[in-house]
């Protein structure tokens, strides 16, 4: 029988693509999402891609009782916990909202995993835990700096909290530190569709194109070759597949724990991404240079060697492909 995996935040950007990848590898995803930053149309998109219905519970992971009922109904073989708020800027303006939601939902998930003896947790962390690194690429052993935002703090705290619980009562878990996910499923049926104004470069750029407004590039005086910030962009389907590999690793290594960086292992500057987007999609991106933005670091990119060696995972899609898929998804929305 197919293994049931609880995917919290499964209607979101990375969660929806991970549900598709899970199905491709023979797992059955069960989605919990309160749709605080996503739409139900993503569930329909997943179902179209996989050709069958997906179990979806529109509930909030911070509410223990309804969550408990789901754990009573299903016998999960693992959990991928995406459900969290992710806007750096919003977390600066409203830190309590981020601590309450990101830590509250994690705490409930861990409590119920313990109560129902669910094995295997995959936790969404972020390269934000490293802050501004002194050396690139960053490995999993790169020391953390103090978090640049309350959002980053919730990821540091989340990792530590899982680690502490693991010491008290061994819980097999993998922490995945994502670099910068972009792109969409090649079908154009699912992609990045946050509610309100997006925060990340690619969805903001697409929104600005559709509004016929210039994209703000925050700073061109950083110590990088073209002066704009450098990030490690990763196709969301590559990222999705890494979650499946992480689950498979846990199945082979019960009660063990590991941390992996997930990135391409190379950086692209903001101006390079704009230029690549223009050339792959044949569309002009109007932009203007604005002052540096508070909280932005100069550059960061991953050393993904550990994921390759232990998970047998590496990226297979390029930044250009991701930019093409992101635009294709956007065209399907209109
Ligand atoms: N996208 C990125 O750049 C990035 C980078 C590093 C880490 N992450 C982490 O990856 C995870 C997924 O990110 P994403 O880009 O898919 O974000 P997303 O906002 O698209 O997805 C998160 C989903 O979780 C849901 N959600 C939030 N709080 C919830 C709650 N209490 N109960 C139920 N559902 C809830 C939202 O409605 C949304 O559908 C998050 O934990 C995020 O912090 C994202």
Please provide a written account of the structure.
There is one protein chain. By secondary structure, this protein is of the alpha/beta class. The chain has a domain of 209 residues: NAD(P)-binding Rossmann-like Domain (Rossmann fold, 3-Layer(aba) Sandwich), CATH 3.40.50.720. Helix content is 42%, strand content 16%. The protein has eleven helices and 13 strands. It has a seven-stranded parallel beta sheet with strand order 3-2-1-4-5-6-11, with helices on both faces. A two-stranded parallel sheet has the order 7-10. Strands 8-13 form a two-stranded parallel ribbon. β2, α2 and β3 form a beta-alpha-beta unit. The longest helix has 21 residues. It is globular. The N and C termini lie far apart (39 Å). The relative contact order is 0.15. The mean pLDDT is 96. The structure holds nicotinamide-adenine-dinucleotide. The site of nicotinamide-adenine-dinucleotide has 31 residues, from α1, α5, β5 and β7.
Briefly say what this structure is.
With 334 residues, the protein is α/β, with parallel strands linked by helices.
Describe the secondary-structure layout.
Layout: E1 4-8, H1 13-24, E2 28-32, H2 41-50, E3 55-57, H3 64-73, E4 78-81, H4 88-93, H5 95-115, E5 121-126, H6 150-168, E6 173-178, E7 180-182, H7 201-211, E8 215-218, E9 230-231, E10 233-235, H8 236-252, E11 257-262, E12 268-269, H9 270-281, E13 287-290, H10 305-311, H11 319-333
Parallel strand pairs: 1-2, 1-4, 2-3, 4-5, 5-6, 6-11, 7-10, 8-13
Antiparallel strand pairs: 9-12
Helix pairs in contact: 1-2, 1-8, 5-6, 9-11
């Amino acid at each position: 029988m197919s293994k049931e995996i609880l995917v919290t935040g499964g209607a979101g950007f990375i969660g929806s693509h991970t549900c598709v990848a899970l199905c491709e590898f023979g797992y059955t995803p069960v989605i919990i999402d309160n749709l605080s930053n996503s739409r139900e149309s993503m569930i329909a998109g997943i179902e179209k891609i996989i050709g069958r219905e997906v179990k979806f519970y529109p509930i909030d992971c911070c509410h223990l009782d309804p969550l408990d009922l789901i754990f009573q109904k299903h016998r999960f073989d693992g959990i991928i916990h995406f459900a969290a708020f992710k806007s750096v800027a919003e977390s600066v303006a409203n830190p309590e909202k981020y601590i309450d939601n990101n830590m509250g939902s994690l705490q409930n998930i861990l409590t119920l995993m313990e109560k129902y003896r669910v094995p295997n947790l995959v936790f969404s962390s972020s390269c934000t835990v490293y802050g501004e690194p002194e050396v690139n690429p960053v490995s999993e052993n790169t020391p953390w700096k103090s978090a640049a935002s309350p959002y980053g703090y919730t990821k540091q705290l989340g990792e530590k909290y899982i680690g502490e619980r693991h010491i008290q009562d061994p819980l097999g878990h993998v922490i995945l530190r994502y670099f910068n996910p972009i792109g969409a499923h090649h079908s154009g049926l699912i992609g990045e569709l946050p509610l309100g104004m997006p925060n990340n470069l690619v969805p903001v750029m697409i929104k600005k194109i559709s509004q016929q407004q210039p994209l703000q590039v925050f700073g061109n005086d950083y110590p990088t070759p073209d002066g704009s910030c450098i990030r490690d962009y990763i196709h969301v389907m590559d990222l999705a597949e890494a979650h499946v590999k992480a689950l498979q690793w846990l199945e082979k290594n019960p009660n063990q724990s590991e941390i992996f960086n997930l990135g391409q292992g190379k950086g692209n500057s903001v101006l390079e991404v704009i230029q690549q987007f223009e050339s792959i999609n044949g569309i002009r991106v109007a932009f203007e240079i604005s002052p540096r933005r508070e909280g932005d670091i100069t550059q960061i990119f991953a050393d993904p060697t550990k994921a390759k060696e232990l998970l047998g995972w590496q990226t297979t899609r390029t930044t250009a492909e991701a930019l093409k898929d992101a635009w294709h998804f956007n065209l399907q929305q209109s």
